[in-house]
Design a protein that fits this description.
The complex is a heterodimer of chains A (about 270) and B (about 290).
Chain A (H helix, E strand, L loop, with lengths): L7 H17 L5 E5 L4 H14 L4 E5 L7 H14 L2 E4 L3 H10 L5 H23 L1 E3 L5 H6 L20 H10 L4 H5 L12 H5 L3 H13 L4 H6 L4 H13 L30
Parallel strand pairs in A: 1-2, 1-4, 2-3
Helix pairs in contact in A: 1-2, 2-7
Chain B lengths: L3 E8 L7 H17 L4 E3 L28 H7 L4 E9 L5 E9 L2 E7 L11 H4 L9 E3 L2 E7 L7 H8 L4 E6 L13 H16 L3 E6 L1 E4 L2 E4 L3 E3 L5 E4 L6 E8 L1 H9 L2 H4 L2 H14 L6
Classes of the chains: A alpha/beta (about 270), B alpha/beta (about 290).
Chain lengths: ~270, ~290
C-alpha cells in the first residue's frame, strides 16, 4: 500500500533532531541502545549515532545462550558499520538461577524474565555511560502490545515508535542498515526458532496495512472489512490493540485530592527546557 | 509611507515555559536583523513562552508595556525596527489569551488575541486559553497590516475580514506541530499551510507572510518553513524546514498596485451582498453563533 511509504530524508531529519533535542536539553550528550541484531534496534542505533556522534552511543548486546548466532553477528556488523561504542553482557548467568528455581516456567514467563533482565542491564549501563536509553519499539508492536512491559519497551525516548514495521524497514534501508538485517524474519529471539509472525499468527505486511486504516485513517472495523480484510482478522487485531492499551499508558492513580498526577497536573516532560 | 521594506521571518526554537531564555534568543535575533537593515521582524506564535504550556499558562503571562521586564527590552529594540512577538496575555478579568503584539517605535500598537483555539486531536488550546473575539487590521509605518495566529487562518473568515479592513500585508505566525509523514518532501501540515497561504495571497491580491517555530516539545516537532507569497500568489522566499533560521526578503508594496491593476478583485468584492446573504444564512440555519 503506497500510503505506508515515507520520505526517508524527512524522517531521518526529524528523528535525528528529536534524539539530539531530547537528550541534550536535559543535560546529557549520550545515548544507550540495546542491540539485538534485528532491524528495529539497528535503526535506532544508526539514528542515534548520526544524532549524537558514534562515540556518544553505547550499543549493549545482551545474548542468552540460545540466542541465534545470526543475532550476534548482525549486531557486530551494525557496530562496525556505525562506529558506535559497544559492550557485550550475556544474561545467561543472570537468568538461569531463577529458571532453575522455577522449572515450571513456560516460554512466555521465561521470555519476560529475559526481557526485564536486559532492561536492568541496559539501565545500569545507562548510568555507567551517563547516557539515556533510546527505545527500539516500532508502531506495529506498540499497538499490538507485542512487547514486555518494563522490559524491551522501557526507554527514556523512542525515535521509531511512530513507524510501522514496513516503514522501519524502508528507513533502515535509507540510512544504510545492512540488507541481511533488514531482510531476515523478525524475531524476539527469546527461544530457538521463534519468529514474530508465527507467534502473532499474521504477517507484518497484513497487519501494518490494517493498523494504518484503523489508527491513522480512523476506519471502523466494518470499513476495514469493506476495504478487503477478513472479518476475523480485523476483530483479532482490534481486540489485541484494545486489550494491550495498559502497556501504553502509565498506571492509573486513584484520584483523591484536587490535583492529581496523571489527571490535572499537566506538564510536558520538557517542562522548563 | 514606505513602499519597500525589508522583512525578516524568524523561525526559532523556544524553551518551554522559560520566558527569560526565550527573551535572550529574541534579542539575539533582533541584533542580527538590525545588522542586516531589517525594517520588520516577525517571530512565531508563543515565541516568548513555548507552545504546549498546559498548566504553565498563568506563570508565563507578560504585559506588553515598558515596565514589564520582558517587553521593556523588546519595546526598546522596536525603536529601530518593528517587531511582532507571540506571548501569553491576561486581561483585567484574568482570562488568558494566546496573543500577538506588534511593537513599533518603542510603542505597542496592536495586540491580537487568537480567535480560533484548536481543541481536537492532539490540540487542547481551548482547555487552557480564552477565545479572542476581534479581528482587526491596524495602521503601521508600512501601511495597514493584519496579524493572525495559526488556526486563525485555517479558517477563511479572519483573513477575509482583514482584507476588507484594509490589510495589504498579512503577517501570520504559528507554532505548528509537524504531522502527516508520507512520500512528499514536506509534512502534510506544512503542505496545507503553504497551500492556503498561497491561496489567500492570490484571492486577496495581497502579501501573505508566515513564520513558524522549529524544535521539539517532547515528541512533537515544529517544521519552520517560513514563506512570503506576493499578490500574484507567487512564492517570494522560503525558509528551511525543521531548522532555526532568519529569512530576510524585500517586500515591494508597489506590487499590489500592479496586481490590482490587472485583477480588481478587491474593487469588485460585493460586501453588501455578502452581508445580506450571511445574515439570511445565519437566521435560517443553526450554524452556531460564536
Amino acid at each position: 500500500m503506497s500510503d505506508l511509504k515515507i520520505n526517508t530524508d524527512l524522517a531521518r531529519k526529524i528523528l535525528t533532531g528529536f534524539i539530539h533535542s531530547e537528550i541534550t536539553r536535559v543535560g546529557f550528550s549520550k545515548g544507550v541502545v540495546g542491540l539485538s541484531g534485528g532491524v528495529d534496534s539497528a535503526l535506532s542505533c544508526t539514528l542515534a549515532a548520526e544524532a549524537l556522534g558514534p562515540d556518544n552511543v553505547l550499543a549493549v548486546c545482551m545474548p542468552y545462550k540460545t540466542s541465534s548466532k545470526d543475532s550476534l553477528d548482525h549486531a557486530e556488523l551494525l557496530i562496525e558499520k556505525t562506529g558506535v561504542q559497544s559492550v557485550t553482557i550475556p544474561i545467561t548467568d543472570l537468568v538461569e538461577p531463577l529458571f532453575e528455581k522455577l522449572p515450571e516456567m513456560d516460554n512466555l514467563r521465561r521470555g519476560n524474565v529475559m526481557a526485564r533482565t536486559r532492561m536492568a542491564v541496559l539501565y545500569d549501563q545507562s548510568a555507567a555511560f551517563n547516557g539515556l536509553v533510546i527505545g527500539t519499539g516500532n508502531k506495529t508492536e506498540i499497538l499490538l502490545g507485542y512487547t514486555t512491559l518494563y522490559g524491551d519497551s522501557a526507554c527514556a525516548l523512542n525515535p521509531i515508535g511512530d513507524l510501522y514495521k514496513a516503514q522501519v524497514r524502508q528507513l533502515a534501508q535509507a540510512v544504510g542498515v545492512p540488507e541481511e538485517i533488514i531482510n531476515k524474519p523478525p524475531s524476539a529471539d527469546l527461544w530457538e526458532g521463534q519468529t514474530d509472525e508465527d507467534e502473532l499468527g499474521f504477517t507484518y505486511q497484513q497487519v501494518d496495512r490494517l493498523l494504518y486504516l484503523m489508527v491513522d485513517q480512523r476506519f471502523t472495523p466494518e470499513e476495514c472489512v469493506q476495504a478487503g480484510f477478513e472479518d476475523d482478522f480485523v476483530r483479532k487485531v482490534l481486540e489485541r490493540v484494545q486489550r494491550n492499551h495498559y502497556k501504553r499508558v502509565l498506571p492509573p492513580i486513584a484520584k483523591l485530592s484536587n490535583r492529581t498526577v496523571g489527571y490535572d497536573f499537566l506538564y510536558l516532560r520538557d517542562w522548563g527546557t | 509611507m514606505t513602499m519597500k521594506l525589508s522583512l525578516a521571518l524568524a523561525q526559532i526554537n523556544t524553551s518551554l515555559g522559560n520566558v527569560e531564555a526565550n527573551l535572550v534568543k529574541h534579542l539575539d535575533y533582533i541584533k542580527d536583523a538590525q545588522g542586516s537593515g531589517v525594517d520588520l521582524l516577525v517571530f512565531p506564535e508563543l515565541s516568548l513562552t513555548g507552545y504546549m504550556l498546559q498548566d504553565l499558562v498563568p506563570s508565563v503571562v507578560r504585559r506588553p508595556s515598558k515596565d514589564d521586564q520582558t517587553f521593556g527590552p523588546l519595546l526598546q529594540a522596536s525603536k529601530d525596527m518593528d517587531i511582532v512577538v507571540g506571548f501569553v496575555d491576561e486581561d483585567s478579568r484574568h482570562r488568558f489569551f494566546i496573543a500577538t503584539a506588534y511593537l513599533s517605535r518603542g510603542e505597542m500598537i496592536h495586540v491580537h488575541h487568537k480567535v480560533y483555539l484548536p481543541t481536537y486531536g492532539m490540540f487542547d488550546e481551548g482547555r487552557f486559553f480564552a477565545w479572542g473575539d476581534t479581528v482587526q487590521a491596524f495602521d503601521t509605518r508600512f501601511g495597514r497590516v493584519g496579524v493572525l495566529t495559526c488556526e486563525d487562518f485555517w479558517h477563511a473568515s479572519p483573513p477575509y475580514l482583514l482584507w476588507l479592513d484594509g490589510a495589504d500585508l498579512m503577517l501570520f505566525h504559528s507554532a505548528s506541530p509537524g504531522r502527516g509523514l508520507g512520500e512528499a518532501p514536506q509534512l502534510e501540515s506544512a503542505r496545507w499551510v503553504e497551500h492556503i497561504n498561497q491561496a489567500y495571497a492570490s484571492l486577496f491580491t495581497t502579501f501573505v507572510a508566515h513564520t513558524n517555530r522549529v524544535g521539539f516539545e517532547d515528541g512533537i516537532s515544529f517544521w519552520g518553513g517560513a514563506t512570503l507569497y506576493d499578490p500574484d500568489g507567487e512564492l517570494v522566499v522560503k525558509g528551511p524546514y525543521h531548522e532555526e533560521a532568519l529569512t530576510i526578503t524585500e517586500v515591494d508594496l508597489k506590487k499590489i498596485h500592479h496586481t490590482r491593476s490587472k485583477i480588481p478583485l478587491l474593487r469588485d468584492e460585493r460586501t453588501g451582498m455578502m452581508q445580506k446573504e450571511l445574515q439570511r444564512i445565519l437566521e435560517k440555519r443553526d450554524l452556531g453563533n460564536r
